[in-house]
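Q: Protein A?
A:
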Amino acid sequence: MILSVPCLASGVIKKEVNKNWTFKQVRGNNWYPATVPGVVHTDLIHNKIIEDPFFRLNERGVQWVDKEDWIYKTILEIPADLSGKENIQLHFKGLDTYADVYLNDSLILKANNMFREWTVNIKPFLKKDGNELRIYFHSPLKIDIPKWDALPYQNEAGNDQSENGGVFNKKVSVFARKAGYHYGWDWGPRLVTSGIWRPVYLEGWNDARITNVFYRQDNVNKKKAELKAQVEVLADKEGEATLTIHTPDVKKAWTEVTTLHKGINTIETNMVITNPELWWTNGLGKQYLYPFTAELAINGKLADSELTQIGIRSLKVINKPDEAGHTFYLELNGVPVFMKGANYIPSDNFLPRVTKEKYERTILDAVNVNMNMLRIWGGGIYENDEFYNLCDKYGILIWQDFMFACSTFPAKGELLDNIRQEAIENVQRLRNHPCIAIWCGNNECHTAWFNWGWDRQYKKLGFADEIRSMQKNLFHDVLAQVVTENDPTAFYWPSSPYGGNPDAKCESGTANWNPNGDGHYWGVWHAKDSIANYNVIRARFFSEYGFQAFPEYQSVLKYAPEERDHNIYSDVMMAHQRGGSHANSLIEWYLLNEYRKPKDFPNFLYMGLLLQGDAIKTAIEAHRRDMPYCMGTLFWQHNDCWPVASWSSRDYYGRWKAQHYFSKKAFNDILVSPITQEDKLNVYVVSDRLKATKGKLEVRLIDLTGNILFEYTKSITVPANTSKIQYSTPLANVLKGKKANEVVVNARFTPSKEQEISNNYFLTRFKDIDFPKATISTDIVAAKDGFNITLSSDVFARGVFMSINGIDNFFSDNYFDLLPGESRTIHVTSSLDQEAFAKQLKVQSICDAY
C-alpha cells in the first residue's frame, strides 16, 4: 500500500503578472499595449511601429531600437488570498538585461543579467490598491560602450556585428550577460533585444517555503538506486517542520523532522529504490520518469510542495587513458552509448515567440531522425524548462555549454561574481533533469586562443597574461567549482573542443583534441577540404562539423518573395547569408567541384541542399564506422533562429532540408555503410542495439539503367553495440571492367521480421556521373491528413525531390534515390484536395537540375 499524505492546499500562492502591460520609448510620449513575456521588438511589431525584421531587408531599419531606453508598466492587482500573507514577493524569471524595477516609485531591484532570476520582497512597498510596477530597460549599448572605451585593448568577439548596428568596431557583447547571438553571428541577424523575456510572478507565503530540491543520484544500477534528497527551505522564523518525500511508484515515503532556523535551511534524506525502472535514451529503452513530491509541513499544515519528474539512471563520461590516447564516451546504465545528434541554437531571435508547440516540434524532429543528444551551444541561452522537460520525456541527452562563445571575456570583479551566481542558479535549476549529460565551460574559446592567433595578438599588445589568466580562472576554476559544489556527480569539460590540457593547442591531429577529447572539424567547409576527407579525419567525439545550404525554394519565398531577390548575391539573399560572399562562394565552389552547374535559382537551391545532405551523410557514416575509437557525432546545426542560409538541417520554419532526411537514415540504430578503402570495397554494418541482430546482407553493383552486374548475399549476425566489416573484396572483383562513373553500389541488411535497411554508395563524384533522364511515375491516394504517393522510375533516379506550393505540408521522405524496378511510398501531410494536390505536385531528380 502506498503511504498517503493528507491532501492540504499548499500555503504558497502564485499569480502570473501578465495583464495590462504597456510600454513606451523613454524619450517618446506615447504608451502602447505590451505583451509579457515579450521583448521590445515584438511589441513594436504588434503595434505596427516597425516591420518584421526577418522579411527582406527590414533588419537594417530597426537598428535604432537597441540605442533607446524603454519603460514597461502595469498595475499590480493583489488578490485577497495573497494580500494577507506574511511574505509577498515578485519573482522575475528573466529580465533582458539592464533593468531598474520600481514599485510605487521605490527602486526595488537593479537587474544586470539576462540569464538570472530575481526575487524581491515587496510587502513594505505595497499600498492598499493602485500599485504601479514599472521597469526601466537601459539600452545595453549605452551601458556597455563606456566599458569598451575604458579598456586599453579590445576583447575578441568576431561574430559581434557592431558595424551593422552602427557602432563601428565597438564589439560590446562580451560585457553584457546576455545572449551573444543577439549581437549577430555567422548565421544570425543583429537584433539586440530588451524586455521582460520570461514570466513574472507575484508570490505570497507564510512561515516557510521550498526554494530548491535536488535529487542526487549517488549509485544507480538495475537492482538498486541510492539517492539523496537535498531540500532547500527559506524560513522567516524558527520552528519545527516535517519534510515528506513520496512517489506513487514506491510503497514507502521518506520523512524528516527538523527545526528550521530563520533564513536558508537544507534538509537531507537518503532514499533507496529497489529494482528501479531506469531511464534510457531515445532508441535504447523507456524514458521512465518518477514523479517525486516533496512536501513541507509546519505544525501539521502543508506550507509548500514541489513536484519533480526524475529519470533514474547512471550516466558517466568516460575520459580515461587507452592505447590510443584518452577515451571520450558516455556510459548510460553501464552501457557505452554512441552519441548521435546535432548542435542546437535558440529557435528565434525573439525568444518569447518560441511556443511549447514549437519546442515539441523541434525536439521531436531530433527524436524522429534517431538522435539521442543535442548540444546547447554557448552563444545562446540556458533553455526554458519546457525544453529540458521534453528532452527528459523523449530521451535526448544534453551537452550543456555555459553561455560563452568565441570571445574573450572581462571576467573579473563584479562581472565574475555575477557570472558565478548565474552558473549556480542554472546548474541548480537544471541538475535534476536526467537529460543533462555534460556541463561545458564554453564554445571554442580554448581553440581560439591557441589556433586563431589570439595568444600572439595579445602578446604583441602586452596583455596576453592578464587576459589568459581571466579565461583560465573562469573556465577551469570558477565554473568547475560551481558544478562540483552544485551537481557533484556530473561531468565538467572546460571548453569545446578540448583535449585535457589547458595550455595546449588543439589543431586537427595534434595531441589536444585528437586522440584525447572532443573535436570541431571544419576542414570541410572553411578550409575547402574535399568532402571525402570526412572519411579519414578522426576524433574520439565530433562535437561540431557542418556544411552550409540555403533553405528550399518554398521557404525562400517567405522572406524573399520578389523575383529580383532570386540570386544568391542579391541584396536580400546576402542579408540572409551572414557568412557573406565568402560563404556563398564556398557553396558554389563545392557545388561545381562535386556536381554540375544548376540551370536556375530554384535548382541551385535544390542541388545545394543535396550537396549539404551528401556531405553530412558522409561524415556521420564515417564517424559511426569508426566506433569505438569515435563515440559521438554532433553536426552543426539542428535549427535556425531566423530564415537564412546556414549549416542547419531544418530551416527557421521547421522545413527539413535534405541533410535532415539523410541524417534519419545515417542515424538509424543499424547502419549498413559501404566504402572503398585501399582498393577494397568494404561493407560495414554498425549497430547501436544492445543485443545481436540476425539478418540477411545483400551487396549489389547496379548500372544506371538497373542492370545488376554483381551480387552477394549472406546471412549474418550483427554484434551488439559495435561496428564491423561484414563484407570485403577487392574493388576490381566487383567492377569487372566497368567504369566507376557507370555504376552504384547498393547494400542492404534485412533483420529477421523487420524492414530492410538500404544504402547507396557512389564510387566517384556526382559531376562525373551521367545520370540518365528519369521518367518518374506517381500514384496519389488519399490518406489520413493528406496523401500517400507511390513513386517509381524507369532508370536510377538520384535525389528525387517532391514539392507543392507553400510550406504548410510535410513529406515523410524526400531527396531520396529511386532504383528502377522498385517503388517507394511517401506520406504527405497536406490540407489540399486531391485535384489541387496533384496539380501542384512537382517531382524531379538531379538530371532535371542541370
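Q: Protein B?
A:
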Amino acid sequence: MDNSITFLISTLNEGIDKIKLPPIKDNVQYIIVHQVVNGFQKRDIPLILKRIDVKYVIDLGTGLTRSRNIALSNVSTKYSYILDDDVEIKIDTIDDILKAFKETKSDLIAFNVETFEGKPFKKYSKVKVKINKILAARVSSIEIAFVTKSLLNKGIKFDEDFGLGGKYPSGEEYIFITDCLKAGLSVLSYPLTTVKHEAVSSGQDFFSNELKIIAKKKMFERITGKKISFIQIAFFMKKFKILMVNKKLRYFFCEYFRL
C-alpha cells in the first residue's frame, strides 16, 4: 500500500481502555499489541477492536520494545508511526505526513507533538533539520514515523534490553534512531504537529536512581562503546544547569562515572 500508514500502538492490561482512535480513514490502519499479564482478564471487548482498520495482537510477554517489535513485524503498509496508548492522533495531518516523506525522501521522520492544551510538547525547530547522533537524543518515540521496508531491509528493530519493562528502563528511542543512522538511513525532523499527548516533564529524571544511571551508561555503551565519547560529553553539557542546582542529581552524576 504505497499511500497508507499504520499506527503501531502498544498497551498493557487495562491500558487498552485508554486508546482512542479517530474516525476511519481509507489509508490509515492500526496495529494494537495488547500485553496481557499477571492474570489480567477483561470480559468486554472494546469497540475499537471491532473496527475493520484495527489489527489486534495479544502478547503474553512484557516489555515496551518487545511490544513495538511485534507490531512492526505485522505491518503491511509503506509507512509506520509509533504510538503509545495515551496519544491522540491529529487525523487531519495524515496527508501531510505522507507528503513529508515524498517531499524529503527520508527513511525516518520525527514530527512534533503538542499537549492537549495545544502547546508544544517541547521545544521544536521551525524548519526541517537533519538528525545526527547528538540531535537523536531529543527524539521521543511518539514522534517517530518511518518507511517500513527501509528499516526491515536493514534488520533494524528496537533493542528489547531497553525501555519500560526491559532490563534497562530507558534509552530505547535513542538507540533506535542511532541504529538507523549507523545503517545509513536518512533521518529528519519535520515541523509538523501530528499527535497530542499529556504534558509531562521527564527531562530532569535521568539520574534519579541507580537503575536509571545504569540504563544511561548502558545506552551510551550500546551506541558508542565503553569509552567516554563526544556524544556523552554533549549530553552532560546540556544537563549542566540542572546539575548545578540539584544536589541529588550531582550525586547521581558522580555515581554514573563510578559504576
